[in-house]
Amino acid sequence: MALIVQKFGGSSVADADGIKRVARRIVDTHKAGNRVVVVVSAMGDTTDDLIDLAAAVTTEPTAREMDVLLSAGERISMALLAMAVTDLGVPAHAFTGQQAGLHTDTVYGAASIVGVVPERIGRVLKNNEIAIIAGFQGVNRHNDVTTLGRGGSDTTAVAFAAALRADVCEIYSDVDGVLTADPRICKSARHIAALTYEETLEMAAHGTKILHLRAVEYARRFDVPLHVRSSFSNKEGTWIVNESTRSRWDGDNEAPIISGISHDTSQAKITVTRVPDEPGAAARIFQVVADAGSSIDMIVQNVPVNQPGQATISFTLPVPEIKRAVFALERAREELGFAEIIKDDGVGILSLIGTGMRSHPGVTAKFFAALAEAGINIDMISTSEIRISTVLAAADVPEAVRVVHKAFDLDAEDEAIVYGGTGR
Ligand code: ASP
Ligand code: MG
């Protein structure tokens, strides 16, 4: 008898019909001989609506009361879903985060999980009944309700799957899983059967909308197999598992496995010229940028041969963070001793993700050849064991995605069906 945790996002329970459809799936899973624990998000846009309501009564909502307010969204959906499941003949019991035993620290609005004690959930399972848990919320040591941050229900689901040692944590949304590229710019994008946790983290960090990063990190730490799938179909979704489990899909040879392409046009590039080429120069620059609150992705430093003693440092960061970073650098100009700051917000980052790339030089060569053939100029490059990223002109990104997709034989025979899905 398997133990399955099923998490349903807001789009799956947007209205009464959605709740009934989801209830049917839960009961079917139970009838097939599984033990089932459900984690549910707030219905549709409820959380956004509650945030708007708070903003309508005050410009400075208090953090503690904000969590009381937002946790209400999931209380509604958990109660209705438990009723709908019970109505189909299998007793179901709804639990708030506190009742279910999800303990957090005291950071309202962005609480971290400190422990999961699913005692009551265990009792429900023992009776062969169904537990429905409100996602996104927990209780802190003051006995106050806390929330885990936007999209936090994924993390709730993984946390209970880990604590209950579930066989799988199924994450349901309105898309069929993860594709090899964004189908809006690459019509031949293909469905991915399985990814490792590491690849998923890289894809999510480089522009592919999949899951909450935190949920994937949690799953990796506790080795919880995830199955990302649609609640609107019965298709297999994408499995996210550890490397040895993933080899079941790929065979166990040593060929590099190219999983997919991510792209991100929300980054900008800053270049700092004529930085003194001496120990500590980079440390000072990145300390200033870090103090300005910027999260840096790629960094390239180069000392031109015709300019000994002077380095050029370029790095990428999210567009909304440029202003503050540049301001902070300018302010520290004297201490840092550079000549010029050049901003470029017309860049995009293309990343090829797959296992075993560094040990296969052919992968990098093929990647660059594909871009060269399309006449696409490469600006910056960074590589890791499972990723090659390049900075390009933002305008080149769609074509670059298509040519790289083709070069690595990722093209599907049929055009991808583009759903209007949100992935939530
Ligand atoms: N309802 C919360 C949100 O919209 C949590 C979640 O959906 O995961 O952010
Ligand atoms: Mg939501």
Automatic annotation (TrEMBL):
* Enzyme Commission identifier(s): 2.7.2.4
Instruction: Cite the source lineage.
Output: Bacteria, Bacillati, Actinomycetota, Actinomycetes, Actinomycetales
What NCBIfam families does its record include? asp_kinases, PRK06635.1-1, PRK06635.1-2, PRK06635.1-4
Pathway given in the UniProt record:
Amino-acid biosynthesis; L-threonine biosynthesis; L-threonine from L-aspartate: step 1/5; Amino-acid biosynthesis; L-lysine biosynthesis via DAP pathway; (S)-tetrahydrodipicolinate from L-aspartate: step 1/4; Amino-acid biosynthesis; L-methionine biosynthesis via de novo pathway; L-homoserine from L-aspartate: step 1/3
What reactions does this protein catalyze?
L-aspartate + ATP = 4-phospho-L-aspartate + ADP
Q: Name one GO biological process term.
A: lysine biosynthetic process via diaminopimelate
- GO MF annotation terms: aspartate kinase activity; ATP binding
Superkingdom of origin: Bacteria
Name the job this protein performs: Catalyzes the phosphorylation of the beta-carboxyl group of aspartic acid with ATP to yield 4-phospho-L-aspartate, which is involved in the branched biosynthetic pathway leading to the biosynthesis of amino acids lysine, threonine, isoleucine and methionine.
Q: What is this protein called?
A: Aspartokinase
Q: Which CDD domains match?
A: AAK_AKii-LysC-BS, ACT_AK-LysC-DapG-like_2, ACT_AKii-LysC-BS-like_1
Locate the residues binding substrate: 47, 74
Q: Name one GO cellular component term.
A: cytosol
